[in-house]
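Standup notes
- DV: blocked on the single-chain target, sequence here:
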Amino acid sequence: MQALKYSRQRESIKELLMTRRDHPTADMIYTDIRAIFPNISLGTVYRNLSLLSEIGEIKKVSTGDGVDRYDADTSPHNHFVCRQCNAVMDLDMDDIGSIKSAASKNFDGIIEDYSVNFYGICGSCKDNKEN
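- DV (later): unblocked, structure below
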């Protein structure tokens, strides 16, 4: 693969994402990055997020609602998605790496990676419902 040409915009997008814990959408990142690069286009943000995801610098988190979220934490971990407020958060839990070998038992191909999303109502939404 050809060496990737340095891009201040791409590096700034990655650095911005590393400061976030809320798994922002491309639109959210675009809004924030415009403070640094006022003339950046939404297309440039999407292209750079896609490239960063492809080369493993960030993770794209698909939650099933059609809007991808992005995560600078590329270590193996799981996510919780609130069905009410659509928040995406890291889920602190014991390692479930055995799921990969369980899935491989009856599969003829090679499973290289996996992602797990848990869905429900987050603590804030639950508390608001009870009040």
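- Follow-up: Strands lie at 59-61, 69-71, 78-82, 88-91, 117-120.
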